[in-house]
Amino acid sequence: MTPSIQTTPTIQIKSAAEPPAVIAPDAGSVFATRARRFEQLADGHVLADWLKFLATLTRAQHAALQSLPALPLPDAAALARAREHRMPPLPAQSWPRDAAWHAVLRQLVETVTPAAPESARGDLARLAALPPADLEAPAERVLHTELYGADAALLPYVGAALQVLWTGAAAQLGASRGIAALDVPGVCPCCGFLPVASVVRNAGAGENTVANLRYLHCALCNTEWNLVRVKCAACDATEGIAYRELAGDAVKRPGAVRAETCDSCKSYLKVVYQEKGGVDPVADDLATLALDILVDEAGYARAGPNLLLVPGG
Amino acid sequence: MQVTRRQFFKVCGAGLSGSSIALMGFSPAPALAEVRSFKLARATETRNMCPYCSVSCGVLIYTTGDKSKNAKADIIHIEGDPDNPVNRGTLCPKGAGLLDMVKSPNRLKWPEVREPGSSEWKRISWDDAISRIATHMKKDRDANLVEKNAEGVTVNRWNTTGFLASSAAGNEAGYLTVKILRGLGAVALDTQARI
């Protein structure tokens, strides 16, 4: 009789598995979490009123997203083609956006008007009265990141409404077909838009998550995608990268936000660190404009927009 | 379609008064006033490899200091590199204590030699150290190289000196190590990465 051979089962090392390359937004929580963070950051902040107003706007985004109807996504052939050629499936500048965003915009304007300062209500009333055909031109400006010019005050609301539409579509796509990584690191794999900031994430609840990985966060659709740390999101350089941070007694949350500056292309993008608790790439970005101002004085330009801010100048 | 270079965004003090903050009815003035209460601190993150064992875990080294202002760079923290597929950010207790090795007062910082018969370690220069090792190797090779085996076939074996290569060496350093050592006839060639 042949003795049976006892084999030792292979030990699966957890870290050998690949962490997710792309994380689709969670439609149920992304804006609600952001609204809470805006409120938290407003406490004792020099721009408290503005941040509280943005909390109201973001909460309205959450409500609008919850009532957003299912959107028509590109068909299977178009999605397969995008994947084959490593192109974003819902490109910001060419995906035929559903008219549902007009209703979203009206809903946002209606909700935030009572919270808006007296001087801004005229703009809001004008925006609410615009016929749908006249909404597409400002939308094009936002989607081409031309955040300047006439009627700049309306663009943050338009941007907020487009965020709701694209976040809904990205969440739908993430849940049904998944979102594949592109072969270029600097733009969103879902919509091709620019990142608002990086997030260094804690380990998540799912399997194969790795703590302290950096994900870029899309300024439009809230999709996150992995990029190795210590690398410029705008030009791929790995040399000449430094991290700038506000210092001094007035700093409230040390270490939560840094600016990753690149000496090759002289650009920067902020990084928010989840281990510091409750950070949000959009809210924490706008609560640290002093960092932008000082980094600008040091000679670096921002590599990605925040659609809730028209920077001026 | 407008074709442009990659667009950058300028968020600056001068622009803030014309920004959407002001246009939406809020005053950016307090934010501008506050800027002068802050300084800008600079830090870097540098990839490296844990030197202890053959696993070769990736590490990120955090350094503070502004190189341009003669400030002394100081390593403040070392942690596992989450992007490194070998360890995905984890480190063993020994690796987690790397900062203590960097800062150790007992750390060896230059080549030293203890001559035969002496009990004292003596500091020497890198040039002296490399010349010394080369001289020893040549002497041993000249004395012990086996040029032909019993059948008279040329073999050029150098059996009396061995070489242990670093586990942190990359492909290129590994290639050069083999080329040089095999070229000299060394037979005993191994790497820390294997043990």
UniProtKB/TrEMBL annotation, chain A:
The reply to whether Cytoplasm figures as a keyword in the UniProt entry is: yes
Q: One Pfam family, short name please? A: FdhE_N
What does the UniProt keyword field contain? Cytoplasm
Q: Which GO terms describe its cellular component?
A: cytosol
User: In which compartments does the protein localize?
Assistant: Cytoplasm
Per UniProt, residues of the FdhE central domain are 187-229
GO terms, molecular function: ferric iron binding
Question: Which GO BP terms sit in this record?
Answer: protein maturation
Query: What region holds the FdhE C-terminal domain?
Result: 230-309
Question: Where is the FdhE N-terminal domain positioned along the sequence?
Answer: 19-176
Domain of life (superkingdom):
Bacteria
Q: Which SUPFAM superfamilies match?
A: FdhE-like
Q: Which PANTHER family match?
A: PROTEIN FDHE
Q: Which family does it belong to?
A: Belongs to the FdhE family.
Role noted for this protein: Necessary for formate dehydrogenase activity.
The entry's protein name is: Protein FdhE homolog
Q: Which organism is it from?
A: Sulfurisoma sediminicola
